[in-house]
């Protein structure tokens, strides 16, 4: 029994260690960013967006990206349907769009729009 519990715990830790810890609410992510002093990585997507699905299937599964995003940012996914985010985020016609915001909701970098691979994300937002 103890071995099974330990194995389950280790598997759970491994699963969470290999994924980005996404927040589902902009407001909650903002509070956490303000408390931690970390910038927010905001990913604006739509449900119908093929490039959005590709971003999550490839870029956000890259181990270096996962580690850097979890270490350096508060990550949040925003869809058009959400209502708890700054209206400025809607001023885009290209999806996905990635924003790096300070805890004071100031844009820290130019947004990345469309297809974003791991190397571009690391270079432009994560400084690697």
TrEMBL record:
Domain of life of the source: Bacteria
What InterPro entries does this protein's entry cite?
AGR/TXD, Thioredoxin-like_sf
Q: Which UniProt keywords apply?
A: Signal
| Pfam family, any one | Thioredoxin_7
Q: What is this protein called?
A: DUF255 domain-containing protein
Q: Which organism is it from?
A: Hydrogenimonas cancrithermarum
